[in-house]
Amino acid sequence: MEHSRLSRNSFSNFHLSSLHYYLAIIWLLSVVLLTDAAKIHKKHGPHNHSGRSLLNINLQTNNPRQNFSSSNLCDPNVKQYSGYIQTSDGANMFFWFFESRNSPLSSPLTLYLNGGPGCSSMIGLFQEVGPCRSQSNGNSTYTNPYSWNQVSNLLFVDQPIGAGFSYGTNYLTSTDQAASNLYEFLQKWFAIFTEYSTLNFHIFGESYAGHYIPILANLIVNKTSILNIACGLLPCQININLKSIGIGDGWIDPAIQYASLMDYATNNSYNPTLVSSDVLTNMNGAYPTCKNLLSQCDSTSTNQDCSNADDYCFDNVFLPFAENLNCSIYDVRASLYGQPEPPEDYMNYLNSSAVMKAIGAKTNYVECSENAYMSFTNTADLQVARSSLTQLSNVINGGIRTLLYFGDADANCNWIGGLNVAKSIPSKYQSQFNSKTLQNFKVNGQTAGQVQSSPYLSFVKILQAGHESIAVDIHALGKGLQNTSMVWSAQYLF
């Protein structure tokens, strides 16, 4: 979830945003996706598996779905599946899938990923975009009327191993490995759940997803997949109909986003003196060395060079900023200890024996795996040291609509860095994007944020939103957005 060493296990000062427009905006975009997906579905139909070289989808059994659970938990009114798919390296990857509440076979399919690295996507299910929330006692759930499965089929995957319910013996050490594993998972998943394999496919996520998503999407776009994934007797190769990606408050390029910490400290809407002038002077003094070390990391890609960059930039730029704030780094409107973390009763719910049995979970739930996290850290793979701008450029050049959205109250992965990242993506549309400017959009007569768009790339700054958010009344807000400039942006994007 949180970038660098600020994993969910490391800091306890994460705060909820109050009423805001974060998920409402993404919901509106999803509505546009739904309309587009319906057109695609009518053209091809749910069982036309064009682009597939697979002749037999059996995976070790004539009825592979019998290996999965189909409970009525969380959202009892939709078809759902959960369980494990094993990849070639022995990783047992847990998933929980929910059909759309409306016309599932003419709705898109959205893969939602949380970050860490090593944090479970059950966080996204129960605290962000999923069909249900946990009751305060952790014994049951209630329906989330604002879930993204109002308009899209939803797939949540715990990855890499160690996160959530996923398990195995070989911890991954890089985002590249994680992307390959997840690609293999998707190939096998689509081979089993064939009716969803031709739907428009979208990948959304937050924070460390700023690395997960571009690298996975790049694999899909370039078709540099594992060509001999075992699907029963024959290898499978299914064309994944990727249409868009979305990254919320993502940590994408360290050189750009470290610099943005100094900019945000004095140029935000909430507190122009987030840190003292002395701290800011020290950060500015350390940044040139940080930038040079990051350049060396990008040039050589050796673990040693990237570890050096990781250590120096964290200790001399990020840590002074994080440790000297008098507010939450994830939401500068909140005092450091004044608000609780998001309710985590869902963890009690998931670890109950009845729920684990119902969803086919074979190991206790781990929200964020320290082992998975440290495996990435030990190779300096963490996004602190490496950039995913190149992969984003390849994805955009490949015709995949890309959305970067940032809350204006998040200091950690702040909107200034996000906008500078968007301006720096070296795609063939870069000059067109940079020729545009941020434009206000309104909800119910009030400015809700700003948007800047060009072909295949849109940046959205959302007012009154922190690093993460929970759903509000997206129907009311979505209705308000229909009369704003956000509509043209959404239609243009998707």
UniProtKB/TrEMBL annotation:
Q: Name one Pfam family in it.
A: Peptidase_S10
The question of whether Glycoprotein is a record keyword is answered with yes
Organism's domain of life?
Answer: Eukaryota
Q: Does the keyword Metal-binding apply?
A: no
Instruction: Check the record and name the SUPFAM superfamilies matching this protein.
Output: alpha/beta-Hydrolases
Keyword line? Carboxypeptidase, Glycoprotein, Hydrolase, Membrane, Protease, Transmembrane, Transmembrane helix
Family per record: Belongs to the peptidase S10 family.
What name does the UniProt record give this protein? Carboxypeptidase
Supply the source organism for this entry: Cetraspora pellucida
